[in-house]
Amino acid sequence: MAAKAKTRTPAGASERQRRKLEAVASTTRQDGETKFERLIYERVRLGIMSALAVREQMSFNELKGLFGDISDGNLGAHARKLEDAGYLSCTKSFEDRRPRTDYRITEQGRAALNRYLDHVEAVIRATRG
Questions:
Q1: What is the DSSP string of 44-111?
Q2: pLDDT tens for residues 20-76?
Q3: Region of 2 on the Ramachandran plot (φ > 0 left; ψ -120 to 50 alpha; else beta)
């Protein structure tokens, strides 16, 4: 059984600062597990998820073109982690006798990306004042 997460605020924190810190801390679930999506946090995986959030489908080569400095193996490994988590769907086919891999974001992946973005927005609001 997981212990409930507690929010600690500095003794001298103003009420406004406490509210900001609580807003960031409220991104944890009742069971104490964080809503922060660590899987999406990595630069390449965040780029993949963000690109697929605005485009219905993208091929492996289109995704690779977004990064420029990434190897096929590295991009494939990141995409596989997202696929294994259920955040992406992958369709393999042939086009003019050449293999083609297309990716789509799943509903579960969209929800995970939104949780990640909500957390980042809460951190930004708390930091900027």
A1: HHHHHHHHHHHSS-EEHHHHHHHHSS--HHHHHHHHHHHHHTTSEEEEEEEETTEEEEEEEE-HHHHH
A2: 556 555 554 454 444 557 899 999 999 999 999 999 999 999 999 999 889 999 999
A3: beta
